[in-house]
Amino acid sequence: MLGIKWLENREDKWRHFESEAMPLLPDLFRTAMWLARNRDEAEDLVQETMFQAMRSFHSYQMGTNCKAWLTRILYVQNVRRLQKVLRLKLVQDVDDEIAHTIPFEPQIPQEIADEEVIAAIGRLPEIYRIVLVLADVEELSYKEISSIMDIPMGTVMSRLSRGRRVLRIELADYASRHGFGDQERAGAR
Amino acid sequence: MKCREFREISESYLSDELLVETHHQVNHHLEHCSDCRTDFASRRALRRRVSSAAVNAAEFRIDPSFATGLKNRLREDALGAGLWTKLSTSRRVLIPIVASLLIAFGFGSYYLSSLGFGGPNGNDPLSNGVAELVHFASGNHKDCALEKLARWERMSETDYPEKAVYSDKILAPLKEKYSDSMEMLSVHDCEFRGKEFTHVVVRNGRNIVSVFFDKTDVVAESRDGVPGPITSEFEDGLQVASFAQDRRAVFVVSDLSETENLNMARVLSHSFRQTS
Question: Of A142, A64, A68, which Cα lies nearest the Cα of B19?
Fold first, then answer.
């Protein structure tokens, strides 16, 4: 009887995990691609994340945002991966330097292709890019992003604000170079 | 609210992070200030562009074969390998279970052979030919039920002479077990890569379920009304439950979870035995 109960628990656990976490695989992969910038590494990252998530599923609180919970694991796995492979130290001090180079809020022309929007996000400094992707693509809240990245909410807000501004500048620049959009304002920079 | 105050909180407004009262104040300000309204419209448009570009980009889309493989590995880890690891670490659990299994296997073999089962005509779907047909069923579900879904929704099944039979055998028990809102979208004969099926398409809310009766191959089946086992496969991203009925393979195909799909097959198998 004990054995049957135990098997049922395992099946129940898998069923819950399957229904809560598996549908989020495409979203998780998209975030992994932004973190790893390479399909093979993104797949490795997602796989490690999902196995880790399944083992820790007892700590997930039903009814909370499973996507935020998985993204937190993904983010931690990625930090470990970077520390292991590159021994990288995240640069924290570029915020102000970049913020002071932004003189105005340009309009973004509609003619810009999706590919260029993606490329411009890719060119953002990593500390802005991740916050921008989590907030504007994955639609996670400031609080969830703060928990995922283990940074204060004020830092989330400032990075997001600056990331959005840098992106606007990037795209306005691209528009003026390609002869559409607000050339006069971009030229004034 | 002044323009300067709006600019200070405009990013949070864009992210829908403001308290209700402040949100109302911003709305009020935007109604009366065309400069801020234009500026905000531009920011919101960019946010939408970023979101849609990233979500729709092919390079950020997960490879379906990777997703399927990962799901299989996870399930195996959750239900299979983990079980063995746990059992093998405990002799007190393992030894009685192995002994029980050996005894049960011995008695089971004797019982089945006394009934005339065993060998190539046994009722194991893995050896009676049903398993080899699973990929035809999943392929047909994709090709026929899902691809032509829009057509099924407009289609009437009144042309099919056996509609009433399938309604009794399939729809009625499913409705009884699950929901009255279940409906039969189509009953028809179709072919997929040379295999002919009678295909019943059922909808339960947003889920489309195919029930296939193989018309081409004869498969082995248990005798004397003893129900054959139902097997479950994960094929091409779909759940396929199969069993033998009246010497024909029957498949239940859907994108439900394995347990839900298998339960549906159990309901149908039970219903078929009662109506045959």
Answer: A142
Of B42, B53, B78, the CB nearest to A17: B78
Residue B196 near residue B137 (C-beta atoms within 8 A): no
DSSP at A60:
S
Residue B176 to chain A, least CA–CA distance (Å): 24
* Ordered DSSP codes for B259-272: HHHHHHHHHHHHHH
Q: Is A173 on the interface with B (CB under 8 A)?
A: no
Other CB atoms within 10 A of residue B271 CB? 19
> How many CB contacts within 8 angstroms connect chain A with chain B?
119
Beta carbons within 8 Å of A48's beta carbon, 6+ residues apart: A77
> Which residues 6+ apart lie within 8 Å of B110 measured at CB?
none
For residue B241, the cross-strand partners are B232, B252
Residue B40 Cα distances to A105, A165, B27, angstroms: 10, 13, 11
The complex's ipTM works out to 0.77
Cα–Cα separations (whole angstroms), residue B52 to A143, B45, B110: 23, 11, 64
- Write down how long chain B is: 276
What pTM did the predictor assign? 0.52
CB contact residues (below 8 A), chain A span 34-53, against chain B: 34, 39, 43, 46-47, 50-51
Give the contacts of B204 (CB within 8 A, at least 6 positions apart). Answer: B174, B178, B179, B181, B182
Write out chain A's pLDDT in tens, 189 residues: 444 555 557 777 888 888 888 899 999 999 999 888 888 889 999 999 999 888 888 888 877 889 999 999 999 888 887 776 654 444 444 444 444 444 445 566 667 788 888 888 988 888 899 999 999 999 899 989 999 998 898 899 989 988 988 888 888 877 777 766 544 444 433
How far from A160 is each of A135, A145, A189, B190, CA to CA, in Å?
A: 8, 10, 22, 54
Contacts of B67 in chain A (CB under 8 A): 25-26, 29
